[in-house]
Amino acid sequence: MTAAFMDLVDVTIVNIAIPSIQRETGASVSAIQWITAGYA
Question: What are the residue boundaries of the Major facilitator superfamily (MFS) profile domain, all occurrences included (predicted)?
Answer without folding.
Answer: 1-40
